[in-house]
Amino acid sequence: MELTPITASAKGPADCFTGDVYVTPISAPTAPSYLSAGIVHFTPGAHTNWHVHPNGQTLHVLEGIALVGTRDGSVVAARPGETVGCDPGVEHWHGATASTIAVHIAAVVGTAHHAGTDWNEPVTDTEYAAAQSAVNRQR
Ligand code: MN
Fold it and tell me: What is the CA radius of gyration of the chain?
């Protein structure tokens, strides 16, 4: 067993996120397991860039409302206690709504040579607004 002391939270880098995002590591990938997990805090309006996980991703919501959108325009609004599975190779983004925070655990499995995420361009304001509209229609 290994007890890891409380870990510093790092600001999500601007080349991967829009808005203020903080990531607190839970598990760093270490051979023979390449599980990478962290708690991600998104302030209102903050979200990831478009990205892909070759081996998929599990998101578990702890607080607020987390939006997860894909290129086909689908968007899921997940609440605390709910888990969203992102399929391997399917490009997506995730984050807060415009008016609420989102806090989720994010877990990905990489390989010895790949951290598990391939980052792409930012979600446009139009794409983000469309996701808000889609969620509002679901309520
Ligand atoms: Mn993801």
Answer: 15
Domain residues for the domain of 22 are 10-138
Q: Does some domain include residue 3? A: no
- Ligand 1 geometric centre to CA of 107 (Å): 9
* 19 CA distance to ligand 1 middle (Å): 16
Distance 52 CA to ligand 1 centre (A): 6
Count of domains observed in the chain: 1
pLDDT tens readout for residues 94-137: 999 999 999 999 999 999 888 899 999 999 999 999 999 888 77
Note the residue count of the chain. Answer: 139
Do the domain assignments include residue 75?
yes
CATH of the domain at 33: 2.60.120.10
Residues 110 and 38: beta-carbon distance below 8 Å: no
pTM of the model: 0.94
- The residues placing their C-beta within 5 Å of ligand 1, an ion, are 57
117 inside domain: yes
